[in-house]
Amino acid sequence: MHTLELAGVSSGYEGKTVLHDITFKAQESAIYVVLGPNGAGKTTLFRTIAGILEPYSGEVLFDGENLTRSKEARKRINYLSHYNAIPEEMTVRGALDFYARIEGGSADEVISLLSLEELKDKKVSDLSQGQKKRVSIAKVFLRERELYLLDEPTSNLDPAVSKEIRDILLRLSKDRIVLYSSHNLYEARDVGTNLILVRDGSIGYFDKISNIRSKKYQVGIRTSTDISKMIDARLGEGGYYILTVSTPEEAGLALRKLVENGVLVTEMRQLDNPLQELFEDNYGGITAKKKEEEGKVEEKR
Q: CA angle at residue 264 from 261 to 270, to 5 degrees?
């Protein structure tokens, strides 16, 4: 089992502090989703842990070793920037061979892993943004490490490729620590076990996602029977009866009542996302502003 610990870390650029007294300890092999709006400090956090930025104060420790000072300790890390840092003039195969000679691993294996066979002889400069992202991820997977720092790994990727990446990370996270930033709250809930919420350069939340408690729960129930007279549910979009309750236990009691009344329930799922509520509680003004700006764009169209 590995431990990533930040103790009183402040960091930034050219004397300007972006991260303020960051303290947390990740001791569980799992995917830690890092959430926060643009400018919150997510990328600065990744770059500081990776040893690219030296903290103004505090320590970054991995299994007790100082990542800022120890080059050997940093060799245990793989960092994926949200920028595609692959030489544009090289072919995909040439670039991966180049990095494999430096870091170890097999270019052929990651080409197969990320289904890059059709792209391997193309120049990186001729690829789409999504294709470049796949090559960048292939570089990260050349050699397995003990700590992965992945800054928006599924941005610009189609859903099928995104799922492949998440499946690989879920496998790796069984005995490693993975920090994974994303703007997709539903993806974050599905892939993550723990949450690191970054707000204005500070930690707004650090805990298991399962410990987040919503003020209310919306549950969708699919059945061919009209259940609106049995429980307080209304027929909504997609053929779901929508039930709003205060706790998951209340949803369980409602399901038991339906079964006892002979109703065949073919599907029951949570429709809301507790991360959405947490995010809006912390960034309500930002979220509202973004929606307002999106509305203005639609009006112009």
A: 105
Number of neighbouring beta carbons within 10 Å of residue 141? 20
Cα separation, 104 vs 76, whole angstroms? 13
CB of 203 within 8 A of CB of 197?
Answer: yes
- Give the integer Cα–Cα distance in Å for 176 and 37: 26
- Specify whether the CB–CB gap between 218 and 271 falls below 8 A: yes
Which residues touch 6 (CB under 8 Å, ≥6 apart)?
A: 22, 23, 24, 25, 49, 58, 59, 60, 61
**pLDDT tens sequence across 168-223:** 899 889 999 999 998 777 788 888 899 999 988 999 889 998 887 777 778 899 99
Give pTM, 2 decimals: 0.77
Report the C-alpha gap between 32 and 176 in whole angstroms.
11
Residues 240 and 271 sit within 8 Å (Cβ to Cβ)? yes
How far is the C-alpha of 71 from the C-alpha of 80, rounded, in Å?
18
Q: How many CA atoms lie within 13 A of 68 on its CB side?
A: 17
The tens digit of pLDDT for each residue in 221-256 reads 999 899 998 999 999 878 899 999 888 788 899 999
Cα 212 to the chain's mean position, in Å? 16
Look at the block and give the residue holding tokens 């707000």.
199
β-pair partners for 206 = 196
CA distance 245 to 101: 57
